[in-house]
From TrEMBL:
Signal peptide segment: none
Taxonomic lineage from the root: Bacteria, Bacillati, Actinomycetota, Actinomycetes, Mycobacteriales
Name of the protein this chain belongs to: Dihydrodipicolinate synthase family protein
Keywords, in A-Z order: Lyase
Keyword Metal-binding: no
Protein family according to the UniProt entry: Belongs to the DapA family.
A Pfam family recorded for this sequence: DHDPS
EC assignment: 4.1.3.3, 4.2.1.41, 4.3.3.7
Amino acid sequence: MTTISGIVAYPVTPFDNRDPGRIDVAVLHLLLDRMIDAGVDAIAPLGSTGESAYLDRNEWITVAAETIQHVDGRVPTVVGVSDLTTAGTVRRAQIAERLGATAVMALPISYWRLTEQEIRQHFTTLAGAVGIPVMVYNNPATTGIDMSAEFLFDLVATVENVTMVKESSGDITRMRRLDDLSGGTLPFFNGSNPLAQEAFRAGAAGWCTAAPCLIPDRIVEFHRAITAGKDDEAADLFRRIRPFLDMIVSRGLPTTIKSGLRSIGVEAGPPRLPQLPLGEPEAAHLRELIAAACR
């Protein structure tokens, strides 16, 4: 089984600027090559950055297929399969598996607040429906559902094929608790950009981030410094990129990342409505932060 660790990069889903209803496959390929060439360790299409919740079935399949085919095994692929229903999540996961994904990632989406029993059943059903690993994604800010470290640890320990956790609550104590509960054996991934440095110190296996869409070299450089034990170098790099990281999470990631791409000459189209592009003052500030991070 392929081990996933390090920088897990999240591409946006590019839309044609003249026809926002059409996915721009050429730009998607460009983004994937740019991140892989910079040295990211995995690609994760169809997360919140990839606007998965805003895509219809055919669009979702197009992005999954084009990403997996174009990556072509150069790095692992972790496909986001979250859907409102368990059946929909399973369908997406099975499609991703048939297309050749390395693993799938899902967070519990629900109109009604789910109980732990319901969440457990959701992931048990998903994990039993595919033969590739499942990453459980905790993001209470977007779902309104907060899975405790104890619950996440128990889920990985007791549900076969649930093997990894993406923790995006923004609470570093959750990550430390996951590390303590598992004795350092549970692969957990940081999904909160501003916590990247602390998360690796807490034992994170990797960092799930959209930042490589814009500054791939700096993100990879930071991770390599961390893994080499060059703490002072890593701290200096993180100080330089931290304002940029704060900015891209200040609005929805598709909005900020697509605006940033435009500023570096990559047209990925607008975010899908009801999301709106950045206004010019915010876009100008983001351009400055990208330039500062890349110096």
